[in-house]
Amino acid sequence: MVGYDPRAQDAAPTPHEAAIAGSAAGMATRVLISPFDVIKIRFQLQIEPVSSRRPMGKYWGILQATLRIYSEEGLSAFWKGHAPAQLLSICYGAVQFVSFEFLTKMVHKSTPYDSQTSGVHFVCGGLAACSATMACQPLDTLRTRFAAQGEPKVYKNLRYAVSTMWRSEGPWTFYRGLSPTLLAVFPYAGLQFFFYNVFKKMLSPSSKAGDSGGHLICGSGAGMISKTMTYPCDLFKKRLQVGGFEKARVHFGKVQSYSGLRDCVFQVAKEEGLRGFFKGLSPSLLKAALSTGFTFFWYEFFLDVMCSIREKRKMNNLTKDGGDGQ
Asked: Does the predicted model carry a pTM greater than 0.85?
């Protein structure tokens, strides 16, 4: 069960268990969704329209982009930036789920609200994601830079990227795009936890909806809805994160610089129209369905495993104590 449940206190995860389950869920999910993330980032950073009807830019569709990236850069291109992305997923998953379990427990103990209601999950999920974002933003910026670069590579490895960015752009460059990230991540993560809670109750109102398929379906639906509702902020974040990185973007097409979030919103609206706010939405929805679905699936799976191990140890200790007493 995601979130503190006073009706199942013996099964409530410890912070240590939540951190392990969150990290493992993030790590397992990242391997599966990395190709969709690379395609989504390429679409988001392209100034020209992403449309098969008007193929003006380098990429104009998911299949075309997939084939072009593969032909120009090879299969490994779909896992560009995988090292910082994997570190991001592990760190983010741990901080987010530990914070979420802590916050829902605090709500139960300090307020009259039920910690398993959808509204509480929305607020606690949003706050937990903001905590994880603040902790992991530098890794997200590195992941975006690696995924955005073509051939020849500007950054040879993670260590070189960190030292180069620090020297040439300063430490604050690792927090580029933080404002739109925080604006987007609270409602996005809040809606993920909100709809996951709603869908689980709809799927099995009289039980814990504990089957693996249910976790996957509920998580996928929650991810797609929340991503669609908050997508423009994700696009603004990606555009701002590659500021100062224009040299490596020239051969992808038109390159645009932005002075800040307001300038980014204004220029996208002026030059690309309303559809510009949703560039890369198709691969992003596929990614969101898989990412959120598998994240909740693996989190619940690893928690169940650890809780089962804990219960078996407790029973063994009780049996041993009982035998010693005789």
From this structure: no
